[in-house]
Amino acid sequence: MSPKPLDYESLNENVKKVQYAVRGELYLRASELQKEGKKIIFTNVGNPHALGQKPLTFPRQVIALCQAPFLLDDPNVGLLFPADAIARAKHYLSLTSGGLGAYSDSRGLPGIRKEIAEFIERRDGYPSDPELIYLTDGASKGVMQMLNALIRNEKDGILVPVPQYPLYSAAISLYGGSLVPYYLEEEANWGLDINQLRQSISAARMKGLTVRAMVIINPGNPTGQCLSEANIKELLIFCYQENLVLLADEVYQQNIYQNERPFISSRKVLFDMGLPISKEVQLVSFHTVSKGYWGECGQRGGYFEMTNLPAKSVDEIYKVASISLSPNVPGQIFLGLMVNPPKPGDISYLKYATESKAILESLKRRAHIMTDGFNSCRNVVCNFTEGAMYSFPQIRLPPRAIEAAKSAGKAPDVFYCLKLLEATGISTVPGSGFGQKEGVFHLRTTILPAEEDMPAIMDSFKKFNDEFMEQYEDYRGYSRM
Amino acid sequence: MSPKPLDYESLNENVKKVQYAVRGELYLRASELQKEGKKIIFTNVGNPHALGQKPLTFPRQVIALCQAPFLLDDPNVGLLFPADAIARAKHYLSLTSGGLGAYSDSRGLPGIRKEIAEFIERRDGYPSDPELIYLTDGASKGVMQMLNALIRNEKDGILVPVPQYPLYSAAISLYGGSLVPYYLEEEANWGLDINQLRQSISAARMKGLTVRAMVIINPGNPTGQCLSEANIKELLIFCYQENLVLLADEVYQQNIYQNERPFISSRKVLFDMGLPISKEVQLVSFHTVSKGYWGECGQRGGYFEMTNLPAKSVDEIYKVASISLSPNVPGQIFLGLMVNPPKPGDISYLKYATESKAILESLKRRAHIMTDGFNSCRNVVCNFTEGAMYSFPQIRLPPRAIEAAKSAGKAPDVFYCLKLLEATGISTVPGSGFGQKEGVFHLRTTILPAEEDMPAIMDSFKKFNDEFMEQYEDYRGYSRM
Questions:
Q1: What family does the database annotate (chains A, B) (predicted)?
Q2: Most buried of A83, A213, A311, A424 (most Cβ within 10 A)?
Q3: Beta partners for A180?
Q4: Which of A5, A141, A329 is the closest to B298 by Cβ?
């Protein structure tokens, strides 16, 4: 009998090709262990609230009032909500056409897009056009929309950093394109080397690919590096010379843990460069409420801004966005709040500023605790997390550990991470889920566990790791081979 | 110079092929007129809150508390919220891992999926497995996921009713498949004729297509008919014989305005039929919080349930859902509330029941006002809206109107709808956006304008239409040809 249309063998091959390790084998095993009653520390996804980070109070007050607008007429509302939250809720409701229960325009509410444009102008010093800002259910959905518009067939290549966040590899597979890797230099603090980029693009062209776009993740995920202005300039010249769209994933722009390289947007660098390049390079920049000190992942609020795209293409992207009608409206309002937080003098300013600062400073301390912890372990080396919310240590696995992994039918880093999970409950993602150079192994963990738990987690990691290394570095073992 | 990657000429052709009339030329023109200060009645999208429908109070209270969990510790919370809303908010927060700001599992929160499974069991009389229920950012996203999994190339055909909701045609274009139309019979109250289906599938196979799935929309959009149990049985036998997946769009299951054909789910009919068919036909059913008496479109909460899919395929669909991490969590909680509303005896029951009933009864009255209104117009005939929230009258355009449209470079129905918009501010969607038989013209309007505005809107429509007909039925006009 012939297979049915939704049997595995008859599914779209591109769907089957997708790999997505962040919720892959390790995550599934961790979920199983959790069901069995084991305490799991989920560091596989950058999901701050799941690890105890409290939401910022002011935005949650505003959104609660927007969801329950009848409270605005209640004489007791002032007992539970400050006046500026009440005023702000009225403001956002006035931007909707029918409150949070009505679809917005498929690009998002015009009033919110205007607030985002104003934020971008303040950030970069160049005006931004709300008509070129589209809101999405989280930044990932926007990335997928753009890749879908770019990829025509398997001959279209997209330059992606390796290690990379697997959204990119997964979406490129799903839409039937080809991933063209460029390697970040671990020894140079995960820096981006333009010569390496040129080699990658040449190699891809030799294989007959048309390279169409380049992805950067700044600050880096999983690698945590912050790009310098000089580096971004080089990149933009490269995109100009090679006729590439730059897809700038800047979702971690608030998460900076050092002073040497503050966040600078690709858009600002582009405009600073002046003509002709500032009018020529096509750029799409992504941002979100899921990261930063907000961490409002579950709300799914994101946007992308398009620079130097012709109006006709912008219209096509609008049309495709229209198929699913509207991004979720509460998530849009979170974006408005993120780009327009309480100001000095506002009733809620002090609380908002105190909460934000506490989260950011704690993340910075955790970045240090984690890097130092990894570097104190046998056969583990780790660059400092300059930005974003991940640590990506290299694990130098002894040959016997690699052998043991082979016997168990696992990739060596998967083998290590599974053992770590079973021994400690720490749920990480193997480096192979992000890509790594041949013969080199990593894991990714977020820096998000609560600060007070960090020392114990790192001790537990160290104990596991050092015992693991002891076991597999046993030279008597070799002599038996 | 060669075009840039995001120039129109270098975009993915499938993106360019997409058509989406619900937010097409008419909507854009209406938005322009609105900007110019004209009062527009947007009946182009089923967006109840945008036309003044008030949200149900209880779910909004619960979601406001979930967004602001710190209120639960406030001694004054009882002044603004009833005890059952407080209890329910605590319940839903206990189902999350970190509140509304944390990503859930990519399939949705397990606790909500369990509540949905219990609802389905109560509705159908057969148990449902939460592991086969996936939550999405509105039902449209789920439909797109399934079509993406099904469509391998342009030789894969999907049977779609004509007229249809253009989500289907648009998504099929986007994923590069082929739409295989089957016509609903306007004269038979938009009924579905199995012989017609057989002809459609034969014709598609003659063209070399592999027909993989069949879409039904029950209650119908834009056509408003409710399928009988006997009709669904025939369909399921057809799917069984022809090896088709049935995609059952049942988002309007609460919107029923007659008693002869209450809503019955495809899943219940399938299970009632017994073996072998109940274990053989692959079925995916869709539901949402956007429709019914909820109308919570802006929250983007939807789910799909998979029946008779092998575990390996369910896993593939999970993997692809994981790329964008998690559907929005507030939307998931709305789904929980929809399938588990206040019960008799609960503090909020009476209010909830009164509000829901008022909305549904008003919709029923509006369905009558609108159908009767259209049928009182010259050259307009309209089936009664048995369910859903649309009216789809046939407009019998005189030959001279068709000529005039041609001269204006417009499709005849687009011409008519544009004139209607300019004259009255009523923003409809031309029938060609949904598909219609050659030489026959329609428009779609929602039945959602406020009930008190309805008589004036229908008067305004009648005045425009009858004058339009008068103008173009002028036989002196013909004599000049």
A1: Belongs to the class-I pyridoxal-phosphate-dependent aminotransferase family. Alanine aminotransferase subfamily.
A2: A213
A3: A159
A4: A329
Chain B residues touching A296 at Cβ < 8 A: 100-101
Measured N-to-C along each axis, helices A229-242 and A266-273 cross at an angle, to the nearest 10 degrees, of: 70
The pLDDT tens digits of the residues spanning B428-437 come to: 999 999 999 9
- What are phi and psi for residue A249, nearest 5 degrees? -85, 105
pLDDT of amino acid A2:
86
Q: What percent of chain B has pLDDT over 90?
A: 94
Query: In a mutagenesis test of the B interface, which of A323, A333, A359 is the best target, namely the one with the most B β-carbons within 10 Å?
Result: A323
Backbone dihedral region for residue A215 (phi beyond 0: left; psi -120 to 50: alpha; all else: beta)? beta
pLDDT tens-digit readout, B336-350: 999 999 999 999 999
A34 touches chain B (CB under 8 A): no
Point out the residue among B22, B45, B67 whose CB comes nearest to the CB of A63: B67
Shortest distance between the Cα of B406 and any Cα of chain A, in A, equals 25
B444 phi, psi to nearest 5 deg:
-115, 135
Contact with chain A for residue B170, Cβ under 8 A: yes
Q: How far is A477 from chain B (nearest CA, A)?
A: 39
Residue B475, pLDDT score:
58
CA distance B439 to chain A (A): 27
B477 has pLDDT over 60: no
Alpha helices (H) along A207-259: 229-242
Three-class secondary structure assignment of A326-358 = CCCHHHHHHHHHHHCCCCCCCCCHHHHHHHHHH
Report the DSSP beta bridge partners of residue B157.
B178, B211
Rounded Cα gap, residues A247 and A167, in angstroms: 13
Check if B132 contacts A (Cβ < 8 Å). no
Question: Which of B4, B174, B289, B293 to mutate to test binding with chain A, by most A CBs within 10 Å of its CB?
Answer: B4
Mark yes or no for CB contact B101/A151 under 8 Å: no
Task: Select the residue of B77, B149, B295 nearest A15 (Cβ to Cβ).
Answer: B149
Instruction: Tell me the shortest Cα–Cα distance from B396 to chain A, in angstroms.
Output: 29
Task: Give the three-class secondary structure for A248.
Answer: strand
SS3 B85: helix
Q: Measure the CA–CA gap between B69 and B101, rounded to whole angstroms.
A: 11
User: What domains appear along chain B, each with residue ranges and CATH number?
Assistant: 8-39+364-479 (3.90.1150.10), 95-339 (3.40.640.10)
How many Å apart are CA B53 and CA B358, to the nearest integer?
11
B200 touches chain A (CB under 8 A): no
Is the Cβ–Cβ distance between B28 and B439 less than 8 Å? Answer: no
Helices B311-322, B139-150: inter-axial angle, 10-degree rounding: 120
Residue A251 — very low, low, confident or very high, per pLDDT cuts 50/70/90? Answer: very high
Per-residue pLDDT tens digits for B72-110 = 999 999 999 999 999 999 999 999 989 999 999 999 999
Evaluate whether B81 touches B69 at the Cβ level (below 8 Å): no
| Residue A382 in this model has a pLDDT that exceeds 60 | yes
A-B Cβ pairs (cutoff 8 Å, strict): 303
Predicted local confidence at residue A11, as pLDDT: 96
Check CB contact of B310 with chain A, cutoff 8 Å: yes
Contact B297 A326 (CB under 8 A): yes
pLDDT of residue B1 exceeding 80 = no
Q: What is the DSSP letter of B289?
A: S
Q: In sequence order, what are the residues at sequence separation of 6 or more whose Cβ sits closer than 8 angstroms to the Cβ of residue A307? A: A132, A267, A270, A281, A282, A283, A284, A285
Q: Is A277 on the interface with B (CB under 8 A)?
A: no
Burial level of B198, CB count in 10 A (0-12/13-18/19+)?
A: middle
ipTM of this complex prediction, to 2 decimal places: 0.95
User: Does the structure show a pLDDT above 80 at A146?
Assistant: yes
